[in-house]
Amino acid sequence: MFADTAKVIVAAGKGGNGAVSFRREIYVDKGGPDGGDGGKGGDVIFLATTGENTLLDFRYQPNLKATDGGAGEKRLKHGKNGDDLIVKVPVGTVVKRDGEIVADLAQDGQQAVIAKGGDGGFGNAHFKSSIRQTPRMAELGEPGDEFEAELELKILADVGLVWLPNGGKSTFLSVVSNARPEIADYAFTTLTPNLGVAKVDDGTILIADIPGLIEGASEGKGLGDDFLRHVERTAVLLHLIDIYSNDVADSYKVIRNELKQYSEELATHPEVVALTKSEGLDSEIITMQKANLEKVVPAGTPVFVISAVAHQGTTDVLRAVRGYVQQHRKAEAVAVEESDNGDIETITLGKEQLDEKWDTFYDSDEGVWVVTGPKIEKFARRTNYDQFESVNRLRDIMKKLGIYHHLVREGASGDSLIRIGKSEFTLLEQ
Q1: Cα separation of 69 and 13, whole Å?
Q2: Which of 123, 130, 188, 269 could form a cystine bridge with 18, CB 3.0-4.6 A?
Q3: What is the pTM of this model?
Q4: pLDDT tens column, 344-403
Q5: Are the C-beta atoms of residues 109 and 91 closer than 8 Å to each other?
Q6: Where in the chain do CATH 2.70.210.12 domains reside?
Q7: CATH class given for the domain over 159-337
Q8: What CATH number has the domain spanning 5-153?
């Protein structure tokens, strides 16, 4: 069964907590702090591979979780880093978060860090200073990224077949390639995308056949709109038009409009147009229908008359589309060569640039001062609120960033309740 969409919950591992520990050795009086750091949580990494061709498995396994980092230990032992979760996805998978594209895995072997593991907390050995000889505090590990990811598969084909239902696309594909799509004399025979490899002279091209489009497809009518994503990446579009159509020119314009409504970029793809099912038809009718079509297609667009059943004209069509495919491949090769640094690109997501920007406001309904900002929120997540020294450290950081003095100027007092993220504490130690 084919599936080209799925939703999954991706959850990176939590960082391990830092340890509070002191040296306890014979003949060593008042040993210093030796609590180790927590390990980093594992990342969730998507790996594009040609070995996968559907997103169906994700519908049955919608939760993708990396392992947590281990806690720090005494004697400065660092906690074990969590194992990354490597998830294989088909080449052509697009990952979205809240409707926005965050990764486009269009190349075999391309990787993307979809959810980044949390950093491990510092052990108390990090907090020793000339004025703090025996720090009894350690940081908590930071939570990893966790969110619902929307997956879409866009098949990577050279040629996209588009036209009205029952327009002869499946027949054409079965004749010129190794694909075996369902063929029948009724609309919407094709319910899922079909792929076929066609041999052309000394090379091959990959052809994608999608369900036929109807007027209004871009607005959700019919079936084709669900699959137009599969021809977005193609080098050329092959329009197959039933030569028996009452108005071949109008049929062409209908589909062109639907392509444009779906994607302005898709509408700019190179095109080859072919009138199908010409076997046994009078030559005068063929000439008339071709002339009617040539009036509306863009200048320079090749127009052919073919019969897939009779194997007439199909080779000429394949050679025409292959020419566009070769041009596309050469352009891609140049682009890759110009940008290639010798390594497989890894797209890292969720790597927020931490700066010192912050903001505050008073929530009168709950009687609490709310502090926001990437850096201060990160420190707050790593604070163990059961350790008064840890909370005091957070207060010191607020002073260094200017948050403390700002709150006082705005009217906060020592016993005012402060909220950063999900945690609350008083402005001064009580």
Answers
A1: 7
A2: 123
A3: 0.69
A4: 455 555 444 445 689 999 999 999 999 999 889 989 999 999 988 899 999 989 988 889
A5: no
A6: 5-153
A7: alpha beta
A8: 2.70.210.12
